[in-house]
What we know:
- This is Nitrogen fixation protein FixH.
- By secondary structure, this protein is α+β, with helices and mostly antiparallel strands.
- The chain has 2 domains: 10-40; 71-155, Immunoglobulin-like, CATH 2.60.40.3340.
- 31% of the residues lie in helices and 32% in strands.
- The protein contains 3 helices and 9 strands.
- It has helices at 12-40, 49-54, 56-68, and strands at 71-77, 83-89, 92-93, 98-104, 113-115, 117-119, 125-127, 136-144, 147-155.
- The longest helix has 29 residues, at 12-40.
Amino acid sequence: MTDKPTPRAFTGWHMTAILVGFFGVVMTVNFVMAHFAMSTFGGKVVENSYVASQHYNEWLARADAQDQLGWERTVSVDRDRHVRLAFRKDGMLLEGMGVAATIAHPLGRAPSRPMRFEAGMDGTLRSAEALPAGRWRLDLSVRHAADEARYRIDLR
């Protein structure tokens, strides 16, 4: 016959160690995730959400009017990191566009700054300055004759 070792008794110390270990892991994960959330999101989408809610229907009407213009936009970043814009209506390139643009880091890590555009030889618009490396948000206000459209575009 073989001698079987007698099992050790499960004591209160064992249960305490299990509970402390479990809640220690849970709290560590929560603190790490909270740190990542706070360090990657600026936390502000609008200055005042109540005031923004008062303009919501007006913004929807503007967006509908903008869609009615029928403009097709093409936005790209060339290999020199210059932003290129082209606007078409019914397949024809729109010329004489007035553009006001601002670039901003989507997480607020860099200050917003204006971006100038110049007319290219092919009728498109090209940014005068190269876009810094990384992710950027381009806010555009475009005018053609009496029509105006606003766009927010994520660039990489």
